[in-house]
Amino acid sequence: MEIFVNTETNNIFKVPYPTTMVQIGAGEACISWVVQDSVNKKIYQQWLSIDSKGVSYFFEQDNVGFTNIVASRDFLAISTTDGINIFQKLGKIFLTKVNIKNAISIFFDDKQNFWFLSGQTLFKTLSNKFDYSLKKHNVKTIKVVNDLIYYIYIESGFWYLTIENSMGEIVNNIKILLEIDSGLNFTLEATDSIIFLFTQPKFHTGNTPSRIIIINLNNSNISVKEINEINHFGLKELKLVLWIENSLIVQLEYENYISLFYYNPFKDEMNRLSLDNQEVLLFSANVKRNVIYYIAIEGISDNKKRSLFKIVYSNEEFTVAKIYENVGTMVCTLTNGDCLFTVMESGRLFIKLWKFKENILNVFYQSLHNDKYNLLPIISSNSSIFNEELLDGFCKKTLVLFVPGIHKPVISGLQPNLFQEGIYRILELLNSDNVQSFLVNLPGTAGEGKIYRTSADFRKKDLFISSLQVIIDKLIEKGSKKIFLISGSSGSPLLLDFLNTTGFNIPTIFINPIFYIEKFIGINQIIKPNILNYSKIRSKILIIHAEHDEVAPWQDSEKFTKYNSQSQLYTIPSESHIFTHGISWLLCQETIYSFLNCIESNADRIDI
């Protein structure tokens, strides 16, 4: 008998998963989410407008994942993995499609010319005519402010800042005489007199410092503010935004936490705004209303939660207050100072509005009563879940342990990215009288007794291995006989090391596994692990891998399964590392359930 449910009766994204939410006009925002049709089972990415009348749908496509949204007076542009869709803003009427994929930066200037950066190539279309032309190669970042376009590029080995107006005239061109690593991430903010260029490594592994480069347009003077190295593998890009009087609001590391800071470059003052013991994940600011909203993980216990805070600036002082607990992963500030944010409550998605002046909450959207899912409990080596009553109930079931990886925040609810959320949703559908799935909190995922950190360095594997072994040993001691492990992407190497080191025979599933984590984050001086070194693994292993994975080559998984007779490889055709086709999640779900059922039907006990 198959104890794992038939996928035909299940809906992975019956509750929408929000991926983007941005302001597109006065009192109006646009949200994008991934959702599954309950009739035809297809998974779509949808876009909806949010205003005082509520939430209204206007566009969808089969490709899911990446999206970028920007609006002008008359137009709305949506960039996706499949191209850029242009709409008339009023009525959200589709106009045309620009066939450039994955445009990472998109802007309208005050003449409604459309600018976009794809890879390192800058393009431009004229107002009302969306036939694009190439403007510049080797462009690292762009910012459009009213009628001025600012972009940083490399030419003949030198860095340049060009300022161009919406008429196509060059206003300024400055040669930046600094050594800058071209492999960094770049964020540009601009005022009439000051340019801020924020450079940071693609992965914060404590090896490369970030810098705020300050360019004074009045005298072309360039100064640099060095930022201490950050050891936080999971936070890929820190944010910087303009504040009043040419100051900045920026995320920085302080006493082992990512905090929110106010930076005055003229006085070289750096003041922390967020509260103690908080990990600031994202923030949104409204300069005209002197308000900042931020989402942070707080708490020093295993019961960590995301909460929404507001910071109000008045009389030259910042005041912080909590607005809401257990929020999602999206926050958006509107022109009037109000704030939209997502919440998952009782397994249902809500979009709520915090009214800035009235200090009250409104509900803009809530998923249907039938469209909900149950949150996965969290288990860890020092968790209260190891009490007798809970274990007696759980250990009689088949247990599926989801180990996201050392850099992922382990919080039950909306996950920080679509990849992790998709796995989470698939496992939630497994839960029944016979099966229980868990999120696993290990050092590095939630820190050594603190919060979401890489305090356990991913290169120091002993703590991860010993902590997971404590969990497995305790479950065995309490009578668990059937346990499965699952991970993916950069969570895979440590789980492979765990199986290889301990010799446990626990059936394990890997989705788009990264075998060479050091290469992935650019630490070339570390000796690369050899796939063939995992010779002590006894577990049955299923690897689900995208055919065109641009991050973790499919060929690595092919090589692993070739030399490991206990493993099997399922290839998802025409797919990339972060699944962009809705059907890929259905294939993933189907393959996982098939593997679990096969193991269950051929063994009364999993030998661990």
Question: What does the model show?
Answer:
This protein has seven helices and 41 strands. Strand 38, helix 4 (492-502) and strand 39 form a beta-alpha-beta unit. It has a domain at 378-601: Alpha/Beta hydrolase fold, catalytic domain (Rossmann fold). The radius of gyration is 25 Å and the shape is globular. It starts with 16 loop residues before the first strand and ends in a 7-residue tail after the last helix. It is 13% helix and 44% strand.
Q: Would you report the number of β strands?
A: 41
Q: Report the CATH architecture of the domain at 378-601.
A: 3-Layer(aba) Sandwich
Q: Helical percent range? A: 10-25%
Radius of gyration: 25 Å
The quaternary state of the protein chains shown equals single chain
Low-pLDDT parts are 1-8, 445-456, 523-527
For the termini, the CA-CA separation is 23 Å
Structural class: mainly beta
The level 1 CATH classification of the domain at 378-601 is Alpha Beta
- Return the average pLDDT rounded to an integer: 84
Helix count from the secondary structure assignment:
7
Q: What does the largest sheet look like?
A: 7 strands, parallel
Which topology of the domain at 378-601 does CATH recognise? Rossmann fold
Q: How much of the residues is beta strand, in percent?
A: 35-45%
CATH superfamily of the domain at 378-601: Alpha/Beta hydrolase fold, catalytic domain
**What best-fitting shape do the alpha-carbon axes yield?**
globular
Question: Strands of the largest sheet, in order across it?
Answer: 35-37-36-38-39-40-41
